[in-house]
Amino acid sequence: MEILQATFISSVADLAKCPPPDKPEFAFIGRSNVGKSSLINMLANRKQLAKTSNKPGKTQTINHFIINDIWYLVDLPGYGYASVSKSLKAGFGKIIDNYVLKRENLDCLFVLLDARLEPQKIDLSFLEWAGTAGVPIALIFTKSDKLSANELSKTMKRFKDVLTQYWEEVPPSFITSAETKRGQAEVLNFIDEVIRN
Ligand code: GTP
Ligand code: MG
To answer: How many domains is the chain built from?
Structure first.
């Protein structure tokens, strides 16, 4: 699939104000500054569809875009920057909790992980929390342009080793770069397949 049309729809701080759940939806989440907004621009071949910044915490709302008139793409706020609760039960803040747990047309939540870092506590907590709640997840390792192939396979292996401790099956995973466009076709084809099934 190629993104031929990408249009901003809304930026809201409340699940109830999201567009009606009448289309397949794919959302992007991860720690602040992991590269969510940059990845969305890369997938859409746009420079400023989603707002990016080198200051963590740029995206604070639920941002819907309609793609090819068929599906919704969603840029979410980062977790682990603002007031993230220490207790797993309390979740990751009201906006994220409500959206992730209650958005009925959410077909896949892409969880972005910085390919340069070993598994971070907050990422593992998020994966455990969302996984336990039965949210459909895929992993995206971002900023791969900053690593050698060898370093990259080391991080991925470390992640998979940790995840297999509590997931029977490790979720689908992708390696991306907003700089080189690595992973663009793979992620879009995956979305296409999910929509068709
Ligand atoms: P918040 O909205 O604050 O949660 O951040 P975000 O996850 O949307 O991150 P954003 O896309 O704004 O990117 C954060 C910083 O990382 C920016 O300075 C980007 O230029 C940089 N960045 C993002 N993706 C990549 C990448 O693939 N490669 C490199 N080298 N830098 C990247
Ligand atoms: Mg952002």
So the answer is: 1
pLDDT band at 85 (very low <50, low <70, confident <90, very high): very low
Among 38, 95, 141, which residue has the most ligand 1 atoms within 8 Å of its CB, making it the best to mutate?
Answer: 38
> What residue's CA is closest to ligand 1, atom 20?
54
**What ipTM did this prediction achieve?**
0.98
Ligand 1 mutation target, pool 36, 52, 152, most atoms within 8 A of CB = 52
pTM equals 0.93
* CA nearest ligand 1 atom 21, residue: 35
Q: Which residue range is the domain that position 184 belongs to?
A: 6-196
Q: Is the CB of 58 under 6 A from ligand 1?
A: yes
Give the strand pairing for 6-12 and 62-67. antiparallel
Residue 1 included in any domain: no
- 106 against 97, higher pLDDT: 106
